[in-house]
User: Fold these one by one.
Assistant:
Number 1:
Amino acid sequence: MLTVEQIAPRRIIPVVVIEDYLLATPLRGALIGGGLQCAEITCRTSAAIEAITAMAEDPDFLVGAGTVTTADQVERVVRAGARFVVCPGLSAAVVRACADAGVTCVPGTVTATEVMRAVELGVTTVKFFPAETNGGLAAITALGGPFPDVRFVPTGGIRLSSLGTYLASQAVAAVGGTWLTPLEAQRSGDFASIERLVAEAMAVAEDAA
Ligand code: 3PG
């Protein structure tokens, strides 16, 4: 099973809301062009499963599924080619379904109780969601006190301007966000601007390294 560090060695996970699966291949090209080899496709649109299938055609590109809330969904996204699963919250059923399927699960947590429950379920890298409305880096740093072995993937409200602050923390395994793949750019086929957004984020990540 892949670690989050293996999934996102550059410490950025683009969270993709995709409306048209035909855009998955050019979108993957833009992410790779900007310097990233992974994407989380959110299961919020009817195009998600086909988009995962299309992105998974490149074996060097790690595609995962986001917004996964049920064990049934785990089965569907893994069948489509997802190598990791991200959840907005913590569900034991989803964590167990991922373990059974042999894929990495990154469940969402906000409180110490949720982090404890995740650790009980064998998870040591959790999503911290929604990050900005729940105390941001200050909250992650506070949670890192009692849980020095847990690493966080803050997501929710993060943009280029706050990326570097999060990445400066060793408690942060990676940062996720939708700002890298805006729907307007996808709709207008402006993949060059997506590539630029990714490249900008990569430059920030390199400075934080
Ligand atoms: C997620 O599902 O992780 C969030 O919707 C991402 O939040 P953002 O849109 O503020 O980046």
Number 2:
Amino acid sequence: MEIKKAEFTLSAPMESMCPKDTKPEYAFIGRSNVGKSSLINMLTGKKNLAKTSATPGKTLLINHFIINNEWYLVDLPGYGFAKRSKKEVQKLEQMINGYILQREQLVNVFLLIDIRLEAQKIDLEFMEWMGTSSVPFAIIFTKADKLSASKVLQNLNAYKKVLSETWEELPPIFVTSSEKKQGRDEVLDYIEQINKG
Ligand code: GTP
Ligand code: MG
């Protein structure tokens, strides 16, 4: 799919303040610093569309980006950032969970996972929560450029093995690098297929 236009729409602290629109939305979620905002920039080909940072906790609101005037990419705050007060963690959790559960036009969540790490409890639990809430999701492994191709495959297979302990059917899985623009066509084609219905 060709990205002809990608523009920031608005930032909102809760679902009810998100754009009043019915176009399909694709949201990016995952631990702080996993590369959600970088991936949005890579997919749209706009380097500074979503704000990124080497320090975790950069994205703190629900950010909508309208693509080709037809659908939205949604950048969410990360979860699991240790250096936060309990109150802050709860606030962000409410923001993320509320958006995911209430947003009717949300057609798919992309859960981002750092390909370098072994399966983390917090991500597995988030997947289970989406499963029980009937939220369609796909997994995007990030930062593939940080490992050799063989190590990427090894980690990918190890992760699939962990997933198959809980999931009868594995979700769609993508391997990406925002640095090397790897996985761009695959993710965009997947979105295009869903948009076509
Ligand atoms: P929060 O908004 O804080 O939750 O983080 P985020 O998930 O949006 O991460 P962000 O896109 O801001 O990226 C975090 C850091 O990882 C930045 O320093 C990025 O440059 C780096 N990064 C993201 N994706 C990649 C990638 O594919 N490869 C490499 N090498 N670095 C990446
Ligand atoms: Mg971010």
Number 3:
Amino acid sequence: MSNPAQIILDGKTFELPVIEGSENEKAIDIGKLRDLTGYITYDVGYKNTGVTKSAITFLDGEEGILRYRGYPIEQLAEKSNFLEVAYLLIYGDLPTKEQYAAFDKSIDDHSMIHEDVKTILHGFPSYAHPMGVLSSLICSLTAFYPESLNPNASEKTINDSIIRLIAKMPTMVAWAYKKSKGRPVNYPIRSLEYCANFMHMMFADPTEIYEVDPVVSDALNKLLILHADHEQNCSTSTVRIVGSSQASLYGSISAGINALWGPLHGGANQEVIEMLDQIKNDGGDTKKWIAKAKDKNDPFRLMGFGHRVYKNFDPRAKIIKKACDDILHKLGVNDPVLAIAKELEQAALNDEYFVERKLYPNVDFYSGIIYRALGIPTNMFTVMFALGRLPGWIAQWKELRNTKEPIGRPRQVYIGEKTRDYVSMVDRG
Ligand code: SDX
């Protein structure tokens, strides 16, 4: 064992192997720790714990680096499109022209959803949160495609499930929106590019012709690319641990959607815009709200700020902030909360509390301002995050399945009652 880690427990020295990744990340392999020492490790929130080796996404929180399969996020956001990035994440390489054409056609071929899904959709009240609707509709695919439940399904069956998810989620999202408005749903149009098709399904209405502004579809491509994967975050870890029990891809993705829903994770983009509106309606006194965010007795947090991994800057936030200015200018949208967001960012970046804790704007801080400028309602922002993250979830689930990882089953340190005998109700007094 070259250059092992040494740990001394109860006067005995134990050696544990050290592994190193392709970007020189180092980890102590504790796979044999309990057998060797009787001890386990303890790491609430897995802040220092690697749960897998992955070849999909690399991020460096100190340097603000994010790469999908080795390609820098800045280049992909600038030069690629969402469907091409989805192919890259899922299959490992950028597609050739022929591969892309075949992928695009397969997505078109599967973008319709079974008409019976409308029965499930109409079972929800119009005020249902679209994340709950989406996770239910995605899980319903296990009923329409029962072959997806087979843990030993063929590669073709697995790939069919992958294509159906990428193809049908935009339709489901748009149908959930139309349902909430009491308006008739739109069907996908093969001739439209992926993001343009989504915007058409969201906003077209039988009463008029709806043309998708290329500025809008370009903006959406960029946003979805920036959300497409982020290594072992909360929702991706959920998809992987559910998938590790050999649950279906549809069931694993539905679980990931629910994990993303939380306000500390993907739900933050909705919380940010509601926070910015609250600050605007309160008179726009950013100093007052910065003070509230620092006050331990105040439950208020500066939503869209801080990150478990990025301790310098979130490269996605930098790209989205710049895109904000460009897109709102091109669309002629003047949203006063953009100025408030920039003021908050500046105040925080010059405040000891945030600097000391390395709290910077994250991917959610500016994204909602763009979604609102595109006409997407606030309660759909987290669903947009899910739409973007889908290829990453799929790629991570596929990697776990291909490497045949064992079922995820963490340990614990028990702090409850020691053994005690049962006393019957009569004798308990
Ligand atoms: C996403 O993991 C990923 O990659 C996620 C994601 C992805 O692409 O999948 O990047 C997407 O989820 C981005 C994060 C969105 N969430 C928010 O914006 C919610 C607000 N931010 C936080 O609640 C918080 O920063 C987290 C959840 C993002 C990170 O939490 P950690 O790493 O567990 O850090 P922590 O809560 O322990 O905070 C450390 C300190 C604490 O102060 P002290 O106890 O040391 O005095 O920083 C403070 C916190 O109180 N703090 C904040 C704060 N975030 C952390 N104080 C005020 N406002 C904030 N936003």
Number 4:
Amino acid sequence: MSNTEYNSRRPGFYKLSFAERRAQLDPGKLLSPEEFSALAGDGGLDVEQADHMIENVVGTHNLPLGIGLNFLVNGSDVLVPMAVEEPSVVAGASFMAKLVRAGGGFTAHTSQPEMIGQMQLLDVNDPATARLAILEKKTELLAEAGEIDPILKKLGGGPRDLEVRIIEDSPIGAFLVLHLIYDVRDAMGANAVNTACERLAPQVEAITGGRVHLRILSNLADRRLARVRCTVPLEDLAFGDYTAEEVRDGIIEAWAFAAADPYRAATHNKGIMNGVDAVVLATGNDWRAIEAGAHAYAARDGKYTSLSTWGTDVEGNLVGTLEMPMAVGIVGGATKVHPTARAALKLMQVTTVAELAEIIVSVGLAQNLAAIRALATEGIQRGHMGLHARQVAIAAGAEGEQVDKLASQLVNEKTVRIDRAEELMKEWSQ
Ligand code: MEV
């Protein structure tokens, strides 16, 4: 990250035309013409590439790609590509990133990129004895796992530890679970971990006399965490008729609701994932893995709760944190094959997976702030409806300047509905 031409403060960017925005996007020409067109044009994934990615391909499926602005992460400016279909998400994250910027930006870090591979060991005579027999051979098993992926080994990755758990209570009685802890460096790591588990299984069976059943990574990647914190200066929170204290305390009360109640926590965390998934998707990463990890982590203490926290510092400023598993990669899979994903990573100038994870959690925290700030004050519908109205206008057949005209009319009438939009279109065409 870090290149002065890529200042992510772009005042008025949203007011520019599509063409003007594109012209401003890459001032230092970081992207080649092909990369630029993959990110900000119509040169994304072609059907031939798509045909090699999955089965039964008949086409591709597009999403809008917007740029999250104002992000300052660990002192570096970053333009954040976000692929998402929902209005307000990009605007909300960008606005909150601006407030956070005034407090010094986002401070983020990650743990080691360690994934967990699971092996389910059945049919052992005595689970406790089998557990110790495996642990006695830990060095040999890790050495064997270390030879599987020479490239990862060269990059400093590979197996780190082997843990054995006894699951006492299951519908089929007790069994063992081995956790192979595997440092996957800049990869998402599914292939490396699954291969390692499959390779070790016969040895584990020989040691214990048992039967290794499942061999697969866990999406509860709680050894591969990304963490971020931010401060919003108190005075920057005031807006409209709301005092800064009212906004700050309203945000903290909103968070307390999510911290205490799983029904609210699910929606609160969905707001975080609006931002997280948009970057995960733009970079070609597996958003289902990130979703699974996030929600399992939110329930790690036996009760589903908020992934973020909000409070105050000694000066009364608003402070927020977010911690969640972040199993993303920047090598391999769609991150390398999908032209838009490659260009998205290049635009962000990330060189390590840790940098990408740090940006993603920053966007998640900004998105969470946008949602609960709105909910704690004027409600979500006001801002949302303005943007939603544009979609309704387009759905009703509006084009060009008509889109904004029709959207404003719908908002003014407080009737953002397709039937009314179509009615107006009909009236205007007569
Ligand atoms: C909508 O996509 C997300 C929100 O519901 C999040 C929240 O309630 O915190 C607005």
